[in-house]
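Repro case for the chain-ordering regression, as requested:
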Amino acid sequence: MPVLTYLWIIPLLPLLGAAANGIFGGRWAKNTVTALALSSTTLAFLAALEAVREFISLSPDQIPWSKSYFTWISAGGFQADFALQVDQLTVIMLLVVTGVGWLIHIYSTGYMNDDPGYRRFFSYLNLFMFFMLVLILAANYLLMFVGWEGVGLCSYLLIGFFFLKQSATNAGNKAFWVNRIGDFGFLLGLLLIFRTFGSLDFATVLPRAAAMPADASGQIGTLTAIALLLFVGAAGKSAQLPLYVWLPDAMEGPTPVSALIHAATMVTAGVYMVVRSHAIFLNAPVAMQVVAVIGCVTALFAATIGLVQTDIKKVLAYSTVSQLGYMFLACGVGAFGAGIFHLMTHAFFKGLLFLAAGSVIHAMGGEQDMRMMGGLRKKIPVTFWTMFMATLAIAGAPGFSGFFSKDEILNEAQRVSPVLWGLGVLTAGLTSFYMFRMLFLTFFGAGRYDEHQVHVHESPKNMTIPLIVLAILSVCGGWMAAPQLVGGVNRFEHFLAPALATGAEPVVAAAESTGGGGEIVQALLGAPVIAGLLGFLLAWWFYIKSPETPKKLADSLSAPYKLLSGKYFVDELYMAVIVRPLVWISDKVLWHAVDERVIDGAVNGVALVSSETGDRLRRASTGNIRSYATWIVLGVLVFTSLLLWMVD
Amino acid sequence: MVPTSYFLVLSAVLFGLGVIAFIFKRNILTIFMSIELMLNAVNLAFVSFSRLLGQLQGQVFVFFVIVVAAAEAAVGLAIIILIHRNRGTLNVEKVDSLKD
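-- result from build under test --
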């Protein structure tokens, strides 16, 4: 068990790559930088594969496989180790993070080839891999929090990668601040966990949480409070209402970053954390309802905004928010396995969509506005075909990976609430519409760009090969969990079940009972497909058949259109309600009143008093012996009379 | 026998006179003499306590003080003469070149 024994090797490899490139890379040739960055992630991926191979041969009672390397913090009764663990959930995350991360590293060598910040980019990207691996391998909440904050830092650094651009800097700051709110909730959740269970180790907390009586429905007990606080953290990291606002702006970063951090891995950390804490959530019905409703509403809300975006990356950003909503919907209805399944397929197809969008942007010489594209299908065929596969996958075309994961979520949702199911199906239709809209605007019709200015060209091999690999995964990634509907065995759920079991736990039973739902379930399963088909047809009608229709529709429905293209004016609302008052208070009260008057006043006041006192006292030092003698005599007299007076 | 308090009162009066002279006189020589006066006032107090308590330490101290005072007088007077030679005055308020 070489890798499982020395688990730390997996996160260490990218860290070494980041440190080497970050500290010494400036003196090295570009090829060396590339070799270091790529080899560190490749080795991490290979180590992860080896770890999974070893993991499979473990006996069930050795799982979760946990290794403590040293005591990190020991204070009073509290102890946190640097401990890593592997269970089925970790295995899936590990493969997704290292695998997709590796592909995106390869892609980046092509995409970032001409960028002057090449070395800095790969240093950050490797650092991100390190923190993400710490996050998913951690065996306690505190170490997880280290990874959690670390990926947030890397996200901030990479969003603001083009730091000379004001909008990029602002977007980075926005991401950082919005995440602070979420992280505050997470931290409070950790404190409450420690207070309740006296530990932060998963192995201690989760079984105890599972053994505790569930909070009564409609009541907020300790477990519900913990779950809700953790969910605040998850909502910040995974861009859910009302903290989703940073993710669309995060598209200011380089496109591979959008693919890796803001689609495939980091933003799913919130889902991972909720699934990891499922023992707490299952005993907190109110929190589950909140998660489900927030997830469902976010999915719909973001999808509607995505309908009218014109920036190719913004469409994908809102799509990501929407798909993350699906994952939380799955968690909220208790289908944690389905949530993780969607997380995985989403990592494939959304990573691919972003990379393909990057390839389009690359081909267009930096243009991101879809209104300036069109007719690219013949010119960049590899990009087109791979993006087409990904679009089919996200739209839920039968047989593609998104179909299985989305249908599983909706199927589970339908068993809990028809309303959530209905909204989910509606979102599926919208998803299909905006994705095909993007595809049609970009690749079909006539070119709307200046042929003399833009020389459209296919991307180099190191960019197209990751696209092809991810396209294959997007198509086939769902087959291992083909539900009973098509006569398959849900291997994915089966594999994950032990990690999601919490003793007397209904999840396994639920997963197995899905098949017995009868015709109604089968009919319902068709609904998202029909919705997706309608979305496709509508997009086809709007953007291929009669391209004037969208314009007319936008004119005739100008109020809703403005609402959507203004993104429901949430940014403006936050600006008016939160940012401006905060700036005002900071400026007028905290800065000019408290800081300048009170704090500076106190400091300057002390200085003024002592300097004035000194100035007065200075006059007493005349240099005249006789006046000193006078003072001495007076002093003696005063003390003597005091003594006499006290003796009496 | 004369009570000790008489000696002590005399000592205090002499000391007080010395202090007053030290503070108010400007002539270095007078100031110097007032220091001697204070020393001798203290000597007187030592001796009277010595007599009162029947111990000799006080008188031993007085000898020391006398010796120190003699040395001081030798050095001090030499300085005063030099000041007078260099400056042509013995007014302390005029001898303030270190202050400037």
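Ordering looks correct now. Chain A touches chain B through seven residues (CB under 8 Å).
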